[in-house]
Predict the structure.
Amino acid sequence: MNIVAFFIEFYAVKLYADATLQVVFFVLTVIGWVIWLTKRQGYKVRPTRNARRTELFDAMPIVAIGTVVWGQYLSTLGDPAPLLDALVAILSIIAQYFLSYKVLQNWHFWISVDVLSIGLYLYKNLVVTAGVYAIFLIIATGGLFAWKREMARVRSSSAA
C-alpha cells in the first residue's frame, strides 16, 4: 500500500523518477525476499556481509552516469528537480540491491537517500512525506547499528 500511495503522490507532483522507483521497489522487494531465504548457511536468513570493493567501485559510475542520463530525460518531462530526483532514484536502487543481498553498506546508501529526499520533498512542499523520510532516516541509522552488532555477534560466536 505504501508503494502505491508514494507512486500516486510523486507522479502528481511530477517527481517521475521517484514514481518509477516505487515500481522498481516492488520488484526488488520480492527478489530480495527470495535471496534472503537462499544461501543461509544454517541461519534463518542470509548472513549480513560487507560490500566487496568491486561492488562499491562499480556503483560509482552507475551513480554518476545514471544520474546524468536519467536527470536529462526527467528534465524533458518537466521534473522540477531532475538531477536530484534521478540521484535519489539511482542511490535507492543501489541501496535496495545491497539490501537484497544483506550487504551492510546498504544502510549508508539509505541514509544518503533519506537526507537528500527530505530536502527534495521540502522543496516540493511535501512536508508530510519529508517527515516520513525523517522517520526512515532514523530507521536506517538504527538498521546500520543493529546490523553491525549482529555481524559482530555472529563473528564472535563463530570464532568461539
About this structure: The helical segments are 2-12, 16-36, 53-76, 82-100, 106-123, 127-159. The chain has one domain: 2-34+55-159. The radius of gyration is 17 Å.
